[in-house]
């Protein structure tokens, strides 16, 4: 059973120089996430370069993650398919190979109506027993899941959480006012992480956590313990790095940050290419400055968390 709370990294997929899965570096990163205290692992999102992965590679990543985490945290797979039948097939296959939850995007490429989107979500939810997080990101994916649409989705008991990425953090309050604890709400925008937690988000589906797991979890734990000022000190340092997540090249950016912290490589899968020229220099400059001023963290793992 997934406890929908805490920090859940949308992990990157590690590749070798010859474009194979780099399971050695993948394991090193996942173990760093676990050591930092993350609360779940999400595979196959945008950061995971899911659109370039084969079904076989996704299966390898699920099974490898399950072997590494050994039940410490749930392993969740993202679903972003072109058709309802494909999405159902991926969901059922993920359940069969051991995934413990799903993160679900609206239909890709086709801009579905509200009714079509709700029907799509219900069809997938009814095809599996796995708990589901709905990913609401109209900025990038052009479909907003409205409060009325979530009303219709309450009949699916396994739809249990929302990744809220509208960029309007007050939507967290609207969701909480409307649904109480029926849906757990996660912020999905790194640069709104602390603010979202302060106003009531249950968790954070994070990106820069891939390179900086301890700093991300520390912010979450400090906020939940009411230590906002301490959390702000880390967050203020973190913001220039977090801004690397809100870019079309977020994968390349975050992989460069993983190189800096020793838990990743910058290998990406074409058509993505490593950053070059002035933009590469700019991103490395942001990372280098942050590394020179990396904060000393408090003993965040032993804080008493408040509800």
TrEMBL record:
Pfam families, per the entry: DHDPS
GO molecular function list: 4-hydroxy-tetrahydrodipicolinate synthase activity
Keywords for the protein's UniProt record, in alphabetical order: Lyase
Residues reported in the UniProt entry to bind pyruvate: 205
Listed SMART domains: DHDPS
Active site residues of this protein: 135, 163
Family: Belongs to the DapA family.
Protein name (database record): 4-hydroxy-tetrahydrodipicolinate synthase
